[in-house]
């Protein structure tokens, strides 16, 4: 399926069937099985992974003051909320499998949509799976009493991570019901675990420190524009996932009502728990101690309740990252499925399993890429590549609202508040983030390399699917 072109060459709005989530004439369909709270769980479960447990140290290192540190999390949350509010409108008007891929295709055309799919294939999805599964593996080994930073256990990390990808791919191979059930269970566990740590810190830790760690709020030299941009990358890694629900829009029940509600509810709940978690960390540990702590939640819990606290946090992180891994394999393969259905990718990838009603070929392909990446690269390499590659396409997906609102037949039941300020803020923040990454000597060449890999998709498009026309 492809969008219809007007005589002037602009993308015209395709007619979307609200029940199937596909346009008339489309060849592949997936049944709508995901309700409101499962949709919220998909968003929360895809977002809360390793970031809130390991990003605070890096942020405090770059911005060593309570106010600068909180400012990064607040800006990151507002960034995600502006994006979620915009996608809430677009998704309610385009409730199709593929999410941002569909929004870019209908707003900007086939080449930008292909580039998004190429970036997902070559960098984004595999890097995401690799980074998340690596964190799961590290904590799993810690729970078993092994140090993942020492030989031979540093090699075991890769194998355990690959095994986790395979297990979660099996859940999702068996259909959206099984995948969303795993998502619901792990989301409740991870959110509850974070709440428990927060309550402990506020009830026990805060009275002991008397709030001394919150002052001075802005020590001299604790804020710099360049450092803020780099710290924001870490925060956005923690917030990433707010857009993943859109990828399974074609499988959400009553999508025109459910998608906006789930996107907004889920994003607000993530922002709230992240800000509270940082309050909890600072209630127990000083900025300097947070800077030196690569496992800040575990260190907080150890101070509060001793060794059992470390085990509790390790298990919580395991469940958290396992749920995020499951969410990534629930949502990400739908991009390749939608591309194949549009004949912008290998057509067998659009096959639907006759029994489980899942895009099983797309799931197996995505899992295979994740296993390959996790065997070859480190967490830091994977996480940085992911953020750099995804941000331009988030901006394009959000910016599609300006084109879609001009198209006939675009009648979303939800309209983004404060339009056009909200989407413009998101786009401006995206440009700032990319510009800062390109200008900073520490990240310049890695950023340029990732963007270069994405741009390789342009000649690839014209050598392959672009030659076939429509």
SSE topology string: EEHHHHHHHHHHHHHHHHHH
CATH architecture: Up-down Bundle
Shape: globular
> How many structurally independent domains?
1
Q: Write down the overall mean pLDDT.
A: 86
- The residue fraction in helices comes out at 55-70%
Main CATH class: Mainly Alpha
Largest sheet: 2 strands, antiparallel
- Named CATH topology: Amino acid/polyamine transporter I
Low-confidence parts: 1-26
- Radius of gyration from the alpha-carbon trace, in angstroms: 21 Å
Fraction in beta strands: under 5%
State the secondary-structure class: mainly alpha
What is the overall number of helices?
Answer: 18
Structure description:
The chain has 18 helices and 2 strands. It is mainly α. It has a single domain, classed as Amino acid/polyamine transporter I, CATH 1.20.1740.10. It has a two-stranded antiparallel sheet. Strand 1 and strand 2 (11-12) form a beta hairpin. The longest helix has 34 residues, at 110-143. Residues 1-26 have low confidence and may be disordered.
Overview in brief:
The chain is an all-alpha fold and 470 residues long. The chain has 18 helices and two strands.
Name the features.
Amino acid transporter, transmembrane, L-amino acid transmembrane transporter activity, 470 residues, 18 helices, membrane, 1% strand, disordered N terminus, AA/rel_permease1, mainly alpha
